[in-house]
Amino acid sequence: MGGVEWAEKHYRFQGQSSSTPGRFRAIGYQREPMDLIAEAPELGIERVVMRKSKRTGFTKGCIVAAIGRRIHIDPCSIAVCSPTDGDSSTFSTTEIQPMFDQTPALRGLVAEQREKSSSNTIQRKSYLGGTLYMGAATSAKLFRQISVGLAFADEVDAYIASAGSGRGGGEGDQLKLLEGRMGDCPNPLLVIGSTPKHKDSSKIQREFELSDQRFYQVPCPHCDHGQPLSWGGRDHDYGIKWPEGRPLEAFYLCEQCLQPIGYRERARMVEEGHYLATNPDGLFPGWHIWAAYSPLPSAAWGKIAAEFLEVKDDPLKLQVWVNTVLGEPFEVVGKAPDDEKLLGCREAYALRETGRALPDGEPERAELVPEGVAVLTSSFDVQPDRVEQSVWGWGGGEEVWVVEHNVYHGDPTAEPLWSVVWDSMLRPRYMERGGVDYIRSTCIDANYAAQSIYQFVSPRPIYRTPEGGQGFTWAVRGSSGTGQVWPAKAGKAPNFKDCPIYTIKVDPAKEWVYARADARLKGGKSGPGTLHWPMSLGSDYFRQFTAEERFPTVNAKGFPVKVWRLRKGRLRNEVFDCSVYNYAALCALYTIGLDLDALAEQVRGKVIEAPTVAADPVVLQQPNTRYAPSEHTPRRQRKRRDEFDGWL
């Protein structure tokens, strides 16, 4: 009896086990993997791989049903390795035990649950002909003193680097350890399945590349051309598309006839589909399936498109979408862009005459802040003999223009240099749309000359700009790791209780900066998320902008990670740091209520004239250091508008 036949005849589930309880019905793309897993011993297949997204039914069809069939038809000992102890316990209690309770064919075969009985526990289920062992990749216990004929490695991309990592460095790769537990069994089978994570460390991606790489082909209802469903993207004229601004009306364009296919055709296409191996010389069977094939309402094409539009401008959220919807590994932005190519992306900003003459008698000209800019931010990187400042201008959709990069030489522990810094923060920037504007948010890196920075920031967390508006100053420090860029709350600066210090998660900010640079190199010249540079910046600026890359290592808990370090031959990274802290300065404004898109509309065509008599740059109020944004993604953060009503 094949895997699909057994599951549809015997397998039942309900309650926590499924949102749609009842008799199991295989979906078209589940049939081949389920049957091949059942037939593998007779075919001499010892390894199969499934690279998948969420919402495709892999757990029920290819793990739970396969375990039930094997216990019923051809019993042997079985092992299931989950990423953590919690995952293993959840799998046992919400998938395995309900199947035993609700599937009549298994009643009487599995030991009953009894108090103080070792035959039926959360981690171990005994039955006629073998034992089901369930454990975690974090523990070496699962890989000792057992012998199994069938093993499932579930969600392998969430495994730590080495089983039982800790003192002694752990016991090695979990897949190799599982293979070792199967060496004495005739016709063993290892089933590996996972939603992929990072491309450079993905276990499932490596396994899939060694396989015969089977993709599910479905027929076009118009021309009958067989093809795998593909996201497509803006670079392809096929795939999932939608009318401008209406993602819920998404449809599919056939790669052959380019005719639109409605979502209602999906079910019939999937039932008539089949897998096609694209790497016939692969070592073992491997399948890829993603959410577009799924019958679940949450995987409807319109919802997939809407999810993409929601996350496309945030690298961290985009990774989740690529992993869990497309079922593909995400390539983390960490490789530095080509600085010479970025140099070629510079643009000629509009110019104004400063009223001064150059040595040759020609009038001096300075770049204007481009017309699309709605708010200005700045950041300072402090060095032993200077401070460096970058000024960025932000427009709707986080389109951003680098306005200037300045180097002020001097001793950062002495007051004269900070007078120059203060003057630069208050100086008007002339706008292409007319008039002037002022820096509204400034981050100062307090990793060097911290006491001097606290002395500077403490009296001016919120200050009045010369035209009577407001500006904000933040003392910041960088911290590695993932999470929200701007912290949930401020810390206290040593010996300066009135100077809050904000610890910035720089890793996602660095990814954001490089993602914008990569997008520019790929052809994006304007619009949301585009990064612009003026002609006044030279080659040294771009060498510093591209000074860091992510390098692979393993953290203290044994997980593979990448850390940011200077590239070989690059000694300075002040420009890159200033870029990161400019993004942090924008995130700070989001947490106190900035709606950038609304402000961009509000200032369109609005001119702020330079005041004849500047307002006193006095402190207006202390910043709200207790407000906690929900996440680093700006558009998701809650709004507070009362703190900067006087901008315009």
Strand content: 15-25%
User: What integer is the average pLDDT?
Assistant: 87
Largest sheet report: 10 strands, mixed
What is the share of helical residues?
25-40%
Structural class: alpha/beta
**Total number of strands:** 30
The number of distinct helices, counting runs of at least 4 residues, comes to: 16
The radius of gyration over CA amounts to: 30 Å
**Shape descriptor:** elongated
Multimer state = single chain
Low-confidence stretches: 621-648
- In whole angstroms, the N-to-C terminal distance is 75 Å
Number of separate domains? 2
Question: Would you write up a description of this structure?
Answer:
The chain is of the alpha/beta class and 648 residues long. The chain folds into two domains: 3-218 and 276-296, 3-Layer(aba) Sandwich (Rossmann fold), CATH 3.40.50; 339-356 and 364-644, no CATH class. Helices cover 27% and strands 24% of the residues. The chain has 16 helices and 30 strands. Strands 3, 4, 5, 6, 7, 8, 9, 10, 14 and 15 form a ten-stranded mixed β-sheet that branches. Strand 1 (12-13) and strand 2 (22-23) form a beta hairpin. Helix 1 (3-10) packs across helix 3, helix 8 runs antiparallel to helix 9 and helix 13 (506-521) packs across helix 15. The radius of gyration is 30 Å and the shape is elongated. Residues 621-648 have low confidence and may be disordered.
